[in-house]
Amino acid sequence: MAFWQENLPFIKGFFDERSQKFFDLMDRAEASIEQVNADKIYTSKEFKRIKDNFQNIIKNLERQEVRDWLSSTKELLAEEKKSTAEDENLRKIFDRFEGLMPRVNETKLVTDMLWKAYEYTDDLVPLMEFTNEQLSAATREVQTGSASQTEEITEKHGKVMDKLDKKQKEIRDILAKGEKLSGEPKAPEFLEKKLGEMKALWKQTNEAAKDRLTDLKNNTNAWNAFADKCSLLQTHVGTAQKQIADVKKLYDMDKAKVDYDERMKK
Fold it and tell me: For residues 78 and 87, is the Cβ–Cβ distance under 8 A?
């Protein structure tokens, strides 16, 4: 007991220094919690920095040696009945620590969920870019002047359809993953929004591609029908020309006009 009494000023000084550092650490933890829970959509790189910072702070806050220090310091100062100021300071540390830890544990869950959401939306980016490219290819304006030109365009469009078909499984899988993530209790709103955008874009692109294929087929049929009618018309014209030539063989058209005029004069 004499040792503690002799060294009590040093112990109290050490306690004050450690307690201030602990208060600072809890300040940083609360600031980090606010960043994680801010009503803001970060980029994945921004949130990764926030996540890493939060996890590093909490790692320091939850170290066993910190808990041991709190416990041993409380027991030590409890032996000094006159140390009311230190006791009060210690009580503030414990009260704040105990009030902070439930928020820390809650934020851990939020952080994990948010990171999954940001990773997922990052995975969506190249797929949305791909889908937008196919949508543009399926809806761009095209002009055709013949059945053969339409067939060439149809062949090119078939490549778009083939690309979409090959992506079907990957898209289904990532949409299913998004459905599962968005169904979790702490899923952020932006996850469901991005998932909805991907679903709508994929549906629009596939419908547009199918509509374009139908239009191209109808256009080919129209050109073929037009060619058939032109051929029929040429046949009729040829027949008419032949009939006119046959008539000319039987009648002298120039004399017929003179004869007609003379008859009209009578």
Answer: yes
